[in-house]
Amino acid sequence: MVKVLITGRPGVGKSTVFLRVVEEANSRGVRVCGFYCPEVRVGGVRKGFRIVSIGLPLEGVLAYVCGEMEGLSGITVGKYCVKLDDAVAVGVRSLDYALGECDVVAVDEVGPMELKAGELGRRIWDALLSPKPVLAVVHRSIAEDVRSRLAARSFRTYLYVVTELNRSRIHEEVLRALLAG
């Protein structure tokens, strides 16, 4: 089974590439489900991240600046605290749905914040190691480790690095790899 990973430096367009691939695959009749995590900005300053389901009408807050919102857990990554109840309610439910009902599992992103979020982190690894095709944005600090762990399990694993030079067209190559799986 194919596992397609996308990585790159912050702000380069990884999530944009991911969403273009999801949209294009869905338009071709391939059911892609999972979640993505857009930034929350207030006055041009990043304050946190939402978690939005792909396939279910669910969304919540994944993480926010510690101390600036009610309901945040003690799980921290940098200045952000994870909102564990939303991470589980949206992320875990979305992955369960994707694993059971969809053709491709999509995760944006596999990173320290998501992997520290208890049940969500475990479910992300369940999805990555499942027999389903996976499209995932992976934090650059762990991308090679994730790729090698999947390849060691004999999954056909592709790792694409998004840059300023390729970000407007790399989605086509990523989509081909995903659909060839």
- Beta-strand share of residues: 25-35%
CATH topology assignment: Rossmann fold
Distance between the termini: 6 Å
Fraction of residues in helix: 25-40%
What form results from the Cα inertia axes?
globular
Succession of helices and strands: EHEEEEEEHEHHEHEH
How would you describe the overall organization of this protein?
The chain has 181 residues and is of the alpha/beta class. It has a single domain (2-36, 85-180), classed as 3-Layer(aba) Sandwich (Rossmann fold). It is 37% helix and 30% strand. The chain contains six helices and ten strands, in the order E-H-E-E-E-E-E-E-H-E-H-H-E-H-E-H. The protein has helices at residues 14-27, 84-101, 112-115, 119-128, 143-152, 170-180, and strands at residues 2-7, 32-36, 39-42, 45-54, 59-65, 76-77, 80-82, 104-110, 134-138, 156-161. Strands 1, 2, 3, 4, 5, 6, 7, 8, 9 and 10 form a ten-stranded mixed beta sheet that branches. A hairpin with a 2-residue loop joins strand 6 (76-77) and strand 7. Helix 1 (14-27) crosses helix 6 (170-180) and helix 2 runs parallel beside helix 4 (119-128). It is globular, with a radius of gyration of 15 Å. 44% of the residues are buried. The mean pLDDT is 95.
Q: How is the topology of this model organized?
A:
Elements: E1 2-7, H1 14-27, E2 32-36, E3 39-42, E4 45-54, E5 59-65, E6 76-77, E7 80-82, H2 84-101, E8 104-110, H3 112-115, H4 119-128, E9 134-138, H5 143-152, E10 156-161, H6 170-180
Parallel strand pairs: 1-9, 1-10, 2-8, 8-9
Antiparallel strand pairs: 2-4, 3-4, 4-5, 5-7, 6-7
Helix pairs in contact: 1-6, 2-4
